[in-house]
Amino acid sequence: MRSLTGPQAMTLTINGDARQVVVYPGETLLYTLRGDALGLTGAKPGCENGDCGACTVLIEQMPVKSCMVLTVEVEGSDITTVEGLQHAPIQQAFIDHGAFQCGYCTSGFLMVGHALSQQPDHDQGRLVEWLRSNICRCTSYQEITDAVRAVCSEIES
Amino acid sequence: MSVIGTSVTRKEAPNKVTGRARYTDDVNVPGTWHAVMVPSQQAHARIMAINTESAQNVAGVKAVLTGCDVAILTGDVIEDRPPLAHEKVRYWGEPVALVVAHDEASARRAAGLIEVRYQPLKVVNSIQEALAANAPLIHERISEYQVATPPAYPKRASNLADEANVVKGDVDMVWEQSAIRVQVRVKLPQVDHAAMEPRVAKAEILADGRVLIHSNTQAPYEVQKLLAKYFHLDPGQIIVQVPLIGGAFGGKATVHLEILAYLASKAVGGHAVKIANTREADLASSPVGMGLEADIGLAATKDGRLMAAKMRYFMDIGAYADSAPRIARAIAAQCTGPYKIEHLHADVYCVYTNHTYTTAFRGFGHMPMTFAIERAMDELARTLHIDPLELRERNALAPGDTTPTQARLTRSNLGDLPLAIDHMRTLIHWNGPTPRVVDDRHIRATGVAAFWKTSSSPPNAISGAIVTMNGDGSVNLSIGAVEFGAASKTTAAQILAEQLRIPLERVFIREEVNTHVDPEHWKTVASLSTYMVGRAVLDAANDLIRQLKDLAATVLRCSADDLDYGNEKLFVRDDPSIQLKFSDLALGYKYQEGDSIGGQLMGRGHFMIRHLNLLDQETGQGRPGPAWTVGVQAVEVEYDRMTHQYQILTAASVIDAGRVINPAAAVGQVMGGMNMGLGVASREVIHYDAQGQFLSNQFRTYRLMRVGEQPQEYRVEFVETPQVDSPFGARPLGEHGVLAIGAALANALSSAAEVPLNTLPLTPEAIWQARRRRLHYDTV
Ligand code: FES
Ligand code: FES
């Protein structure tokens, strides 16, 4: 087994690109993403405790709170951040439905909504269950659920 | 087509859905050092000793500061707060020391090694304990404090930071003569703004003496002024930069981390230093929203005409005064709600406790105040058997009436509450407050509540706008209002586009505010930017139009009065074929021969609040704000009689918006406001234990609304009674969704559960307790 003390050089696959990074074993993925080397600041710190979801990214297409994952755990995994969304329908849907105000929670909600829309099953119960992982203080949540539902049903039809 | 009244997409929308929108902590100067605060582990204690030795020895640590190193007191109104606790601590979480290190990890490690020896003092854990005879004094030197922004009257040898009073008419006589009287006592806990972006500040002192501050403040110009004052600098030396803000709600309008960041940078020779709140610090150490206890007495005639009111409001302001004296005056000035009561006496007290200190919270005191008055109104309706909407309509203030502080009301400055109430009846198919049985367990009830709010500002608040033209005839707009989600930048751009008759896409507006470049705007608070910035933008637009016309008149050899404009052109009114493009003039006009006149065209505009004054100490007489926004809100609940749980079925608002500039954004503001107000009313509470320890310092203990808990349906409507002195008649709107929705929820649940519910938050347990108490009283 590889020893994990001191800085580790590793390759991460982020938004389809192989990126070389040097990380400490105790470093969270959120920290690595936002650091000077990668500069992917779309994922936001809101609590760094798993409560708010502002830091959500996708790991193997599933939403994960990047403040709750150590970078060393995701070497070799496929990581998608909000910067990796290229004209995903969820982005325009958020604009059309007014699903953000300050925008700080938006990256996280976008990632959850996008991942959900790629799932085979996204009925109302599942939608609520997935979106409950994140917090928005500005909107009423109706805008966000409307946007996500619109994208999910578009994909269905 | 007019851009006013059109649902345009906010300017920064594309950046916000791609992760490209940048907030304060997204851009850092490489090599920035980190400051970490050491929070107090006691709510009230004398500091006996602070041992910083082991912290100093941690590799990477550059400086350690304690209260002894910083001999200043700060505060917006009363200067009562040391940036780092000095001699004693007054709340759990109060910054006691500050560690500066190369990196955050070292700073944190060192902060954990600082030993503070405390001698615990008796903790003042509630308003009652603060006001008790022989209560321990939180501020022993209260009488020596400077009042930086009068009025404020700290009371010597007490825990009263301030008191505001309003007296009107002959309350004692009328009270006695009135047929009906109701008395309601409400109790609301402290709550947190919980903006998703925690507070952060960075400071750097350049070699030339200039101080660079980056922070997510709502009040960049206040940061500039106060830092200059506290540290004897010229305001011009201080440059405050604010990019997009991730939610604010009043909690970022006070100067807090900026002071610590400056101190940290100064301690390390001016190096760039950042201090970023963890969520835990953002909740417990930075200011929260006040708690409130109030006694409201209303006297009325048998047919439901309000005659007199006696009110006492006690604010749990926590350990330091911050903006509490100004909030107290806002409560006093609007204490009656939007109702005509000619005889009244209201006292508002700012009570120091050993709780986290408080600052403005969305609505500036009007949300808790409205809860108190609207619970009393519902009790009055119940006592009189009058329909609660009818009672509110009958007593609504009208043009010609005066406010509690005797400001004269006009149709323009008041708006039309009866009209809003009328719309609400239709919007929610109002059938009265009587609950409707769904089945043997469930019952549905609707509650209503009305509000009014003015935007309290200093009588000399200012705003400005600068418009420069690009060579292609498009324009750049510079304003001092920050963007925290209320679309203030987009609204300003809309106003400019409308006035210049150009498409919105031709207006470029910077997301950031820089005090060095952008004209001063008082603070981005009180939902005032549309009014204040909007007026400045109109002024700048008119200035630019004048310049365009003057230059065009010279070139076209006519009088400027002969010219009109549209489609980015100026043309002679009676022969539009004689015309010039904006782009021909923007950077000066070049004649065919090559010689040129003019220069870059730039419009400047400013605005200053007028006709306001400070309230009189005895009677409260005065004019607190430019105009009032009125509205009515309703909540329908389905209540489970067995478990006391409830679902919010509908939340509705009808607000007199004057003129809606951006309908989609306005509806979003109001819906988001309702969700926040319902969160506050149904679940949010800051808990302290018996020793005053702050227990709600994470989002798992300070619980916010999540998806699925929001109302099943929102309904929003606007009526539009223009505020004549505001751009296009628009009224302030940003805060108002929160104001009465909690009261409407309490009114709905009170009728469903058949027990007065006057304490927040309205958890099932709280309802159960209220019912049990009632049962107990009824049987004895
Ligand atoms: S920052 Fe990761 S869940 Fe809040
Ligand atoms: S848009 Fe501000 S927190 Fe969601």
UniProtKB/TrEMBL annotation, chain A:
Keywords: 2Fe-2S, Iron, Iron-sulfur, Metal-binding, Oxidoreductase. PROSITE patterns: 2FE2S_FER_1 (PS00197), 2FE2S_FER_2 (PS51085). Gene3D superfamilies: 3.10.20.30, [2Fe-2S]-binding domain (1.10.150.120). Coiled coil: none annotated. This is (2Fe-2S)-binding protein. CDD domains: fer2. One of its GO terms (molecular function) is oxidoreductase activity. It comes from the Bacteria. The keyword Disulfide bond does not apply. The keyword DNA repair does not apply. It holds the Pfam family Fer2. Residues 8-85 form the 2Fe-2S ferredoxin-type domain.
From TrEMBL, chain B:
Keywords: Molybdenum, Oxidoreductase. Pfam families: Ald_Xan_dh_C (PF01315), MoCoBD_1 (PF02738), MoCoBD_2 (PF20256). Coiled coil: none annotated. SUPFAM superfamilies: CO dehydrogenase molybdoprotein N-domain-like, Molybdenum cofactor-binding domain. Residues 18-122 form the Aldehyde oxidase/xanthine dehydrogenase a/b hammerhead domain. InterPro entries: Ald_Oxase/Xan_DH_a/b, Ald_Oxase/Xan_DH_a/b_sf, Ald_Oxase/xanthine_DH-like, AldOxase/xan_DH_MoCoBD1, AldOxase/xan_DH_MoCoBD2, AldOxase/xan_DH_Mopterin-bd_sf. GO terms for molecular function: iron ion binding; oxidoreductase activity. The keyword Oxidoreductase applies. It comes from the Bacteria. PANTHER family: ALDEHYDE OXIDASE 1-RELATED, XANTHINE DEHYDROGENASE. This is Aldehyde oxidase. It comes from Sulfobacillus acidophilus. The lineage of its organism: Bacteria, Bacillati, Bacillota, Clostridia, Eubacteriales.
